[in-house]
Specification:
The complex is a heterodimer of chains A (319) and B (551). With 319 residues, chain A is mostly helical. Chain A has 15 helices and no strands. Classes of the chains: A mainly alpha (319), B alpha+beta (551).
Chain lengths: 319, 551
């Protein structure tokens, strides 16, 4: 197991280099730079090119592309992720501010979608062809098809404006900053994000469960006189959950950037909003840091998926 | 929207009919050919304006929430009487085009830089209007370094050729002073990329800056407007309105509402809010940082309330009595201003405010890139500013301090100096001295700014909300009960404004969005107050010779 993990991690490093270079190149290819976004277009008319050049030089934007990338990667290797070009705040502090909000929301959504999705998927599979299965299938399709922002707005209209049960947005209000005090703010965005992710997990676990139930070892188990619930849950479900775990594993990266739309609709001060603002304003250090983080999580998730697969499915061995 | 589609459909049909009926153009060379572009011919510029039915556009596209423009200046005492409105007259437009020899195979290259749907709709409608008089046009949105693509003037300001690549540029001009509208018509202006030197035009522009007397300034502006209007040096389209939203819970104690893109006396200390906790809800809270008052000194409510200016302004942005200056005087020739500072002012951190802060702010902001043109011009007009900027002097010699009295001596007259001092605040020397003015916004000061204003920062959750609280040590008092101000984090264009208003969490806010005004107008507990602002949408017309776009 340990050598396996070490090998995987070693492969990660060159991949991170290549990916970071490609992202940096992508930002470079976008028209304009951060300075073009600091000064509104109407005001640009009254600023001389020389003044803009001074600002560019101060922000280190006047070096050639490769020199800037070299500087950036050099600093990153020393553990310094640079400063936001817009606010001058260190990128590390920015992440420390925004990451908890995003992780809180995404973890809640991940838990909701995993539990609900697996449960409904199994129920659907065990009732295959019956009414319950059809209802869940249709509901799942609607869940996949409905855009998050629309679902979010409908929920706001229902629970905020009509029933007046929950706050309209934000992560907390003054005086209610502890986790349990601000839980009401988390409910709507977590449910919307969670439900919109549930449908995928449900469809996946249904298919996987059906596949598993048709296998020969299930027939063997039944023929041995094992009770039906044990056949389904112990023998069927355990194997069926392997591909579901893979799916969930690959959803880990949403911990960083997957909730952009939800963060916008619910005014949630997370990494997603910050990332969109950074891309819009070509705030390279912030874009790079978020992208870097996101990529690292995708790659880490793939390793975790491999491990989880091995633990869940006795047929897979790490070698 | 249906009406909009109907207009476009109608215009398409009209364009087809016109195209079918077009006769072969005369083969004689047109007068403009020697000037290198058909847009150098005034008749063609007039025809382009006559072909656009701005009244219908204002009524239908903006649903009446905008004002048709005849000049850069909005209607009021600064606008000349008797300007030609160039009302919609497609027949006259066609006649002028024929007369001037409009090349029917020419496609106008029109650029714009706003990506909102309203701009795109407007461009589509104008394209159709032009098509109905036989003018082909293509529109493209600019990306990237806009300054380089839009405003670089040619080396030869009389004959060109043009440094920019477009025929017409759709733009907005937001002005604090009338000069911001008109200085760029001067042939020496650093941003005049489209209007060549014209006999007498520079003198008319200079006349607007040559006097400190308001009536003389108005006369000079009106003469200039007439000249521009007659020659159609640019094509004004419409004036945008701003909308201020107030809730039923808020009583603004009879204050006059004005242009909220800038600071004006709102008497907020007298406002009454009908909430037990004395909290007033607004938007514009910081997303990543509090915006430094350089490009925009008062766009956000916090800029206005955290910082005081030397001089106060009324809702029309006219400088009134002193603010940080208990009184001030301007010499008869306008070349000297003396501020006598209050001695009972403290920064929010308890330090005393002094003349040192004033000197620091002037010498600091003048070096900040992106400082608004009005302020920059004022600061540069102070005697010794040039030597200071060139590094030949360590301070600006025209700023003299005597105890709590600051005297500014100008080397050139700036009629807008008081306006500048009523909008750009004084910053704390003890917190910013020694930092780099070029990267002012990147200073950690803007994570929790300290000012002298009636409210101070209490709590900031970046990207979520921020709270200002009443400054108990403030040198003025009021009868109001607004103890705290809750600001939902948002940029100037707040996509959550309507939602927050609907949920009863907006008491005071403003925007320029017609869509916001319509939605908030439909909420029972909210009132929409339209306000005139100096914000004009225009086409700049490239009259320098440039590579012909004939296909």
């Amino acid at each position: 197991m340990i050598p396996f993990i070490i090998r995987k991690v070693l492969v990660l490093i060159p991949m991170l280099f290549v990916i970071s270079f490609l992202i940096f190149l992508g930002i470079e290819l976008m028209p304009g730079d951060a300075v073009d976004f600091m000064i509104p277009p109407d005001a640009l008319a009254t600023i001389s090119q020389a003044e803009l050049d001074v600002l560019r030089a101060e922000l280190g934007l006047d070096d050639p592309f490769l020199a800037r990338y070299g500087n950036w990667i050099g600093q990153v290797m020393k553990g310094d992720f640079g400063y936001s070009l817009q606010s001058g705040v260190s990128v590390r502090d920015l992440l420390a501010q925004k990451l908890p909000a995003t992780i809180e929301l995404s973890l809640a959504a991940l838990v909701i979608s995993t539990l609900l999705g697996s449960l409904l998927g199994v129920v659907s599979a065990l009732n295959k062809g019956r009414l319950g299965d059809h209802v869940l299938t249709v509901a799942g399709m609607i869940g996949v098809a409905i855009p998050q922002f629309l679902f979010g707005l409908v929920m706001i209209v229902l629970f905020v404006f009509q029933m007046e049960l929950l706050p309209v947005g934000g992560r907390m209000t003054p005086g209610n900053e502890a986790f349990f005090q601000r839980l009401d703010h988390l409910i709507l965005p977590a449910i919307v994000l969670g439900l919109s992710m549930t449908a995928g997990v449900m469809r996946y676990s249904r298919a996987s469960m059906l596949d598993s139930l048709s296998k020969e070892y299930i027939r063997t188990a039944r023929s041995k006189g094992i009770p039906e619930w044990r056949v389904n849950l112990i023998h069927g479900l355990r194997v069926a959950m392997t591909p579901v775990a893979v799916l969930i594993g690959f959803r880990l990266p949403i911990l960083i950037g997957g909730s952009v739309v939800i963060e916008q609709v619910f005014q949630w001060p997370g990494v997603g909003q910050m990332f969109v603002a950074a891309v819009r304003s070509q705030n390279t250090p912030v874009i790079m840091m978020v992208a870097f983080f996101s990529v690292s999580i995708v790659l880490t998730a793939s390793i975790l998926v491999d491990i989880a697969t091995a633990l869940l499915d006795p047929r897979v061995k790490l070698s | 929207m249906k009406k909009l589609s109907a207009i476009v459909l109608f215009l398409c049909l009209a364009a087809m009919l016109f195209a079918a009926g077009t006769q072969e153009a005369a083969s004689m060379p047109a007068a403009w050919e020697a000037q290198g572009t058909p847009l150098a011919d005034v008749r063609i510029r007039q025809a382009l304006r006559l072909a656009i039915d701005m009244e219908t556009i204002v009524d239908e596209l903006f649903e009446g929430m905008a004002q048709r423009a005849v000049a850069m200046t909005s209607p009021g005492s600064w606008l000349a009487d008797g300007l030609d409105p160039y009302s919609y007259d497609p027949e006259k437009a066609k006649a002028l085009l024929d007369e001037a020899g409009w090349p029917s195979d020419y496609t106008l290259d029109v650029v714009y830089y706003y990506g909102d749907q309203q701009t795109v709709d407007l461009m589509a409608i104008i394209q159709q209007y032009w098509a109905t008089v036989g003018v082909k046009s293509s529109f493209r949105k600019l990306e990237g370094d806009l300054a380089a693509q839009l405003w670089v003037p040619p080396a030869d300001r009389k004959n060109g050729p043009s440094e920019v690549k477009w025929d017409l540029a759709y733009a907005a001009v937001a002005a604090l002073s009338e000069n911001e509208f008109y200085d760029r018509f001067e042939s020496t202006a650093s941003n005049n990329s489209s209007i060549p030197w014209q006999s007498g035009l520079d003198e008319k522009v200079q006349a607007t800056r040559a006097t400190a007397d308001v009536e003389q300034q108005k006369a000079a502006f009106k003469a200039l407007q007439k000249e521009i209007n007659a020659h159609m040096y640019n094509i004004p389209l419409y004036h945008q309105l701003s909308f201020i939203y107030t809730s039923d819970a808020l009583d603004i104690a009879g204050s006059t509402l004005g242009n909220d893109q800038f600071s004006f006396e709102k008497h907020i200390l007298d406002w009454k809010i009908d909430r037990a906790d004395g909290m007033l809800y607004t938007n514009g809270g910081p997303m990543e940082f509090y915006e430094a008052p350089a490009v925009n000194p008062g766009l956000y409510l916090y800029q206005e309330l955290l910082f005081d200016k030397l001089v106060n302004a009324d809702a029309n942005l006219t400088p009134t009595e002193g603010m940080l200056a208990k009184n001030y005087s301007v010499s008869p020739d306008g070349m000297q201003i003396t501020f006598e500072l209050r001695d009972d002012v403290k920064w929010h951190d308890g330090r005393a405010f002094s003349a040192k802060d004033v000197v620091f702010t002037l010498e600091y902001l003048i070096k900040t890139p992106g400082l608004n043109a009005v302020a920059l011009n004022t600061f540069k007009s102070i005697a010794g500013a040039k030597e200071y900027l060139d590094g030949k002097a360590s301070s600006i010699s025209g700023i003299k301090v005597n105890g709590q009295t600051v005297t500014l001596t100008f080397s050139t007259l700036d009629p807008n100096a008081l306006l500048t001092f009523s909008q750009w605040p004084i910053l704390p020397a003890h917190l910013l001295a020694g930092s780099n003015p070029v990267t002012l916004q990147q200073n950690s000061f803007w994570q929790k700014p300290v000012g002298t204003g009636p409210y101070k920062v209490s709590q900031t959750v970046l990207g979520n909300y921020a709270i200002l609280e009443r400054n108990a040590a403030y040198y003025r008092s009021g009868n109001g009960n607004v103890k705290k101000i809750f600001m939902h984090a948002s940029s100037e264009n707040d996509s959550n404004l309507v939602k927050n208003a609907e949920s009863g969490r907006i008491d005071y806010a403003w925007s320029k969005s017609v869509a916001d005004a319509q939605s908030i107008g439909a909420i029972d507990s909210m009132t929409v107050n339209p306000v005139n602002i100096r914000y004009t949408r225009v086409f700049w017309v490239n009259q320098y010779p440039h590579s012909a776009n004939i296909k």
